[in-house]
Amino acid sequence: SGDLLRIEESMAALVIRVTCTLALLLATTRGWSDEKRAPAPKYSAEDTESIFLEDLSQAFRGQRPTLSAMRASARAVAAAANPTSSQGDDSGGADEWSPLISPISIEDEVKRLKLHFDSLVTTPGAFNSGGYMEARLDLTILAMMFAVINEHSGEVRWKSEAATARDLLARTAFNCKAGSIQVYNEANLRKADLQDLISGAGLSTRDAEPETEWGMIVDRSPLMEYAEILIESLEDATRDAKSVTANPDQIRRQAELLSVFGVVLTKEGLDEADDEDYTQLSMHMVEASRGVVAALERGDADEVRKNVSAVRQRCDACHEQYR
Fold this sequence. Notes:
It contains 13 helices and no strands. By secondary structure, it is mainly alpha-helical. Helix 4 packs antiparallel against helix 7 (about 180-200) and helix 5 crosses helix 7 (about 180-200). About 35% of the residues are buried.
């Protein structure tokens, strides 16, 4: 009975403690609810108009810059840094390319080709079943682009490693004339090299030939194939004046690339490069391509379309005589 009495006393003490705790919590909560707080501040549109903008476009002074305007600014800066580049020369030196193509067009095309090449080097089966042919085309053009970067007088990305990239890509392009697991593995290495270049990691090797031997870098057949792709795309982008206005950056890049192709086709070591008629046809295509860019800068859509038509005529005239 003594134990039972002690248990009852303990239970009673516990009930008293719980009751006191609940009473204390209830009193505290009531105090919180009765506490008076300052009301949230209210602002009118007039109070905030000097701090916040109603429209983001108000943050720009003057006309909002377009990508075309930025490209033109970059070309102007390059021209100011290289005042003799507009004259051009036949020495094969740095000034040969800067009048033909801007650093921005070069960088955009390298990135575009890299993405397409990545999509081709996925599995040995797909690559060996025909992907190697498209890979050869991409690698050839990429090798040409890095050869141009190496000699370009403007500030183009990857210039310090351009000669190495040129030689590596050209060698793999040559091997991509057939599909095999060895060629796939080599193409996969170039895929990794391109990723390292684009990301800024750089190439692990620096070995490169001191001069560009164009006959070892590119073949005429893939160059002509790619030129045809560019011309078709250029024609689609210039169907009418509205299309010209809507696609200025694409038109400029592709026209500048065609100018480069026309000059490369005449380089020593390429087929028919010593043929005077062939060289003249190639240079006529260069002139028409540069005419596209000049008309685009003037904002003359009709002249843009006229010069695109001239590019096609020059290309077809060449194909009639040379394959």
